[in-house]
Each structure stands twice: as structure tokens, then as C-alpha cells.
TrEMBL record:
Segments forming domain RNA 3'-terminal phosphate cyclase insert: 180-277
Pfam families: RTC (PF01137), RTC_insert (PF05189)
Task performed by this protein: Catalyzes the conversion of 3'-phosphate to a 2',3'-cyclic phosphodiester at the end of RNA. The mechanism of action of the enzyme occurs in 3 steps: (A) adenylation of the enzyme by ATP; (B) transfer of adenylate to an RNA-N3'P to produce RNA-N3'PP5'A; (C) and attack of the adjacent 2'-hydroxyl on the 3'-phosphorus in the diester linkage to produce the cyclic end product. The biological role of this enzyme is unknown but it is likely to function in some aspects of cellular RNA processing.
Binding site for ATP: 100, 286-290
GO molecular function per UniProt: ATP binding; RNA-3'-phosphate cyclase activity
Gene name in the database record: rtcA
Catalyzed reaction equations: a 3'-end 3'-phospho-ribonucleotide-RNA + ATP = a 3'-end 2',3'-cyclophospho-ribonucleotide-RNA + AMP + diphosphate
Keyword Translocase: no
Taxonomy, superkingdom: Bacteria
Protein name, UniProt field: RNA 3'-terminal phosphate cyclase
Keyword Coiled coil in annotation: no
Length: 349
């Protein structure tokens, strides 16, 4: 039984989700305490509980401590079984984070799988649907993952009601990755959207982002930002920007909130994209930590450069080492650009 202190690294839900994925993949049980100790509301919230129960469902795990507010769980998986699964968070908890917990594990199953998650598709502190489909999925497809993602309904905070579906084929070992250069920036595309609010708000978000991008990047670069309405239960707004580079794409999003000017929503996403662009690095900060669980099981060693080292990245490297024979090297300081090397069972130097 692997013992994990849930307050290590970023001290939030990432430690738990990564441990669940790796436990299912390796068949090793674990006990984790101090879950989300570094958060204002420690312990399991509904979306974390659903991630736990989803992982238990696909692996027929023995589970102790799975309740709202729990600071400790024990999780002992059996074999992961492919099949059709449906999980309802019951709130606007992040559907993408639940999906990202079970996807790595279901790749090890001996048959195809389909997973539907009901919850939030565009909610704070998690990858939005656009990022999941346009950045994360193409990246793991590059590693050999096959299947597809479908958005069946949007879900904004706090109402939720969104629904996403993932189709997966089995994959014994992902392909390694070598990505330290991104090439030229070819164009920027994006979507500024509102649900049950005036379209003019989406236009203001779009215009704000466009103005910031044009000021820094000039008038020659193709930039195509769409303003649109989406059908959603409740209300909300978001903007998503995608930088298309020759060798790697990057994505950045910002969400609207009550009292938050539309202009600020657009500016936030644009500033994040520009910050990434200014480093010259290929992998955006959000994708960097999401790649770790796949590359930790790759056929050979991997190496990639990221525009910002985050606590989530360092945490995933740490937790992966609890479950797998793994050598890693993280070159750079937190908050700065850096390089990641991952070698399953070997020395990354």
C-alpha cells in the first residue's frame, strides 16, 4: 500500500487525481491523507468525490473514505475494465478533470470504452471544453491515443448541466515525445461565447482580446476570433484563444463572472497567450502537467520544453514516481520557462 501525503506539491486535487489514475494503471493500492489540505475548503468536494468513484467504478476498487469533506481515502484497484460508463457530478464540478482521471487508466483496458460525464464544461480552475478538445486531445493523439471527444451540452458555473463524451481505444504504451521547438506562429483563432446573455458581451470580449493581440503582434498575423451564442442551462461567458504554431499549438481561456467586465475577460486570455508566446517555448503551462502521466508510461524517454513550470507539473512528476520506476529531470524554476525529461526506468540525464 503506497502512502501519500495529499498536502505535497500543489496540495490540491491534482495529487489525488493523479494517484487514482496511476493506481488503476499499475494495480497498486494507495492511502492518501490531508486531501486538499492547502485549500480554503479542505477534503473531498463533489467533483473530487466523483473522480474517486469513477476510478473505483472502472477498476472495481475497494474504497474507504469516499464522502464529501473526507480528508483521507484508501483505494485498492482490481483490473481496469473497458466498457460504457456514465458519471454525473451533480453540480458544475469540472467534467474535464473527471475525464482526465479515467482516460489514462482506460487506455490499459483490453477493449474500447465510452465515458460520459455530466457537470461543468466551462468552470474555474480546470481546463474548459475548448482546451480539452483543441489542445489536450490532439496532444495525446500525437502519443498514440485513439478515439474521440464529443460535446453534448455546455455547462457553466454554478448551474452545471454540461455533458461531454470520450471514446477510447486500448493503448498498451504511449509513444514518447520530443518537443523543444515550436516553429513560427502561423495564426490565432478563437471563440468568444455567451449563454443566455446578450451577444454584445461576447463581442466586447472578442474586441478586447483582438486589440491586445494586435498591439503586440502587429496587423499582418491572421487572427480569426468568432463571437457566438451557445445553448446552456444557466448563464455565463467565456473566451478561448488558440495559437497555431508550426510544431505545437497552445490554448488559453478566460471565464466571465458577475461584476467582471467583458473587456477584462478578453484581455486575460490574450495576455496569457502573449506571455506564452514571448518565451519561445512549445508546450503551454496547462498541457505540460497533463502530459506527464502518459509520458511516464511511454515506450522510451521523452523531453519537452514548457513556457512556465507550475506546481501542478512538479506534483505530477512527484506522484508518478510513487507508482512507477521513473527518472525525471525538471530544469528551471517554478514560474519560469523550463525543460522536462522523463525516462521510464532510467536516467534522464
Amino acid at each position: 500500500m503506497i502512502e501519500i501525503d495529499g498536502s505535497v506539491g500543489e496540495g490540491g486535487g491534482q495529487v489525488l487525481r493523479s494517484a487514482l489514475s496511476l493506481s488503476c494503471l499499475t494495480g497498486q493500492g494507495f492511502r492518501i491523507h490531508s486531501i486538499r489540505k492547502n485549500r480554503s475548503k479542505p477534503g473531498l468536494m463533489r467533483q473530487h468525490l466523483m473522480a474517486v468513484q469513477a476510478a473505483a467504478s472502472i477498476s472495481s476498487a475497494e474504497l474507504i473514505g469516499d464522502r464529501i469533506g473526507s480528508g483521507e481515502i484508501s483505494f485498492v484497484p482490481r483490473a481496469v475494465r473497458g466498457g460504457d460508463y456514465s458519471f454525473d457530478i451533480g453540480t458544475a464540478g469540472s467534467a474535464s478533470l473527471v475525464l482526465q482521471t479515467v482516460i489514462p487508466a482506460l487506455l490499459s483496458a483490453g477493449r474500447k470504452s465510452s465515458v460520459t460525464v455530466t457537470g461543468g464544461t466551462h468552470v474555474p480552475f480546470s481546463p474548459c471544453w475548448n482546451y480539452l478538445s483543441e489542445i489536450f486531445w490532439p496532444a495525446v493523439t500525437r502519443l498514440g491515443v485513439k478515439g474521440g471527444l464529443d460535446l453534448e451540452a455546455y455547462g457553466f458555473y454554478p448551474k452545471g448541466g454540461g455533458r461531454v463524451r470520450c471514446r477510447l481505444h486500448p493503448l498498451s504504451r504511449p509513444s514518447p515525445l520530443s518537443l523543444t521547438d515550436r516553429g513560427r506562429l502561423l495564426r490565432i483563432t478563437g471563440c468568444s461565447a455567451v449563454g443566455n446573455l446578450p451577444l454584445s458581451i461576447a463581442e466586447r470580449q472578442r474586441c478586447s482580446a483582438l486589440a491586445v493581440l494586435r498591439q503586440e503582434l502587429g496587423s499582418e498575423l491572421p487572427i480569426d476570433l468568432e463571437a457566438r451564442e451557445v445553448r446552456v442551462y444557466g448563464q455565463g461567458t467565456f473566451i478561448f484563444l488558440k495559437g497555431h504554431y508550426e510544431l505545437a499549438d497552445a490554448g488559453f481561456a478566460s471565464l466571465g463572472a458577475r461584476g467582471k467586465p467583458a473587456e477584462l475577460v478578453g484581455e486575460e486570455a490574450a495576455r496569457e497567450l502573449l506571455e506564452h508566446h514571448g518565451t519561445g517555448m512549445p508546450v503551454d503551462p496547462h498541457l505540460a502537467d497533463q502530459l506527464v502521466l502518459y509520458l511516464a508510461r511511454a515506450q522510451q524517454g521523452s523531453r519537452f520544453a514548457t513556457s512556465r513550470i507550475t506546481s501542478h507539473l512538479a506534483t505530477n512528476l512527484l506522484v508518478a514516481g510513487y507508482f512507477l520506476e521513473l527518472e525525471t529531470k525538471l530544469g528551471g524554476a517554478e514560474g519560469a520557462p523550463g525543460e522536462v525529461r522523463i525516462l521510464p526506468g532510467g536516467n534522464p540525464a
